[in-house]
Amino acid sequence: MSHEMIKPYSLKEGDQVALVSPVNLPPRQYRADQFIMDYLRNKGFGAVNFIASADTEKKRSSTFNEAIISGSKALLPISGNRYADDIFHRIDYESFARMRPIFCTFSAASALLLALHFRSNVGVFYGPHISFIHEEAMFRENTYTIASFWNMLTRRVGITESAESSPVDHLAFGWDGYGLVLKNIFQSGAWLDKDTIPFVSCKNNQTSPLIHGRLLPSFLQSLEKALASGIEVDFSDRIVLVESDEIGFERAFSILKKIKTEASLTEAAAIVLASFVTYKQNPPNEKLIRELSDRDNIRQFIDDVKRLTDDNLPIIYGFPMGHLKYKLTIPMGVEATLNSETGDITLLESPFEEEETEKNVTRMV
């Protein structure tokens, strides 16, 4: 894919935002379409509904294609727990490239994210779903995650103080005159709680700990599914960030081995093993909890991945992304540097195209 990536425009007050369902439709009892629409309108956006009328391949794809050409500045999926590989051949990639809407999803649905990115050459975003961000959500994200989501998509600074504020809200990134740093909050263990991922840095042989590349965040199994579905994922010079839930390190490693046989994984700039978690309840998977939290297991996993990549790639473990409490919204395809010692990522360019009204304003990113 060409490095001349097509960029969306950032969201601003008055822009139209579409709710979409290209991946699946949640059960009716978990739907909150009107609450989400009201939430978006209260934030100053023009909300429109492009949720499919039926959970079929044809309906989901056709309604999604309608949303693409609707003029909406952003397409926000209401769910994402399927790969959506059944609609890859039905998506209007040319219109997606021409309209360049913001598209943000994660989990299994990041297979669709990869399809859109590599087939349309448009920058997309790996982050939480709007269904868990609106004020009436049954399981609402914390203020850190919500602030990170809106700060990224609207390119602004600041969070809303509330009684629910977490100890790391002040680290929710914001745009400023010095660029944008995606802070790795797991580097320091002073504030950490049970939802924290251990951080393991990488000591580079290079004189500088900074690794340059283009960001490629994904759910691990979605990378596997995308490749199996014919998506040409190019790992060359990419800072690859992967996460997963409900699988152990042995299964994760087997997926990485398969990915290596099918694509240019060893040509990546670095691999960030962001988060591997389990939140299964009734009953919880105690064995998996112990495995994923054991530092010896983590270090063995890192060593296995190093050997898989011929000991040529920087490998770090632990980053706020994925199926965990504290997560950032991360742009795909953007040029950045990864600090292999701190785990911080600094964007070297904006994920957004400048509007005509912004072109005379000097920006660092």
From TrEMBL:
InterPro entries: Carboxypeptidase_A_C_sf, Class_I_gatase-like, LdcA_N, Peptidase_S66_N, Peptidase_S66C, S66_fam
Family annotation (SUPFAM superfamilies): Class I glutamine amidotransferase-like, LD-carboxypeptidase A C-terminal domain-like
Lineage: Bacteria, Candidatus Daviesiibacteriota
Keywords, alphabetical: Hydrolase
Residue ranges occupied by any LD-carboxypeptidase N-terminal domain in the UniProt entry: 17-127
Family: Belongs to the peptidase S66 family.
Protein name: LD-carboxypeptidase C-terminal domain-containing protein
Stored Gene3D superfamilies: Class I glutamine amidotransferase-like, LD-carboxypeptidase A C-terminal domain-like
Record's keyword annotation contains S-adenosyl-L-methionine: no
Species, as recorded: Candidatus Daviesbacteria bacterium RIFCSPHIGHO2_01_FULL_40_11
LD-carboxypeptidase C-terminal domain ranges (all copies): 213-338
Pfam family, one: Peptidase_S66
MF GO annotations: hydrolase activity
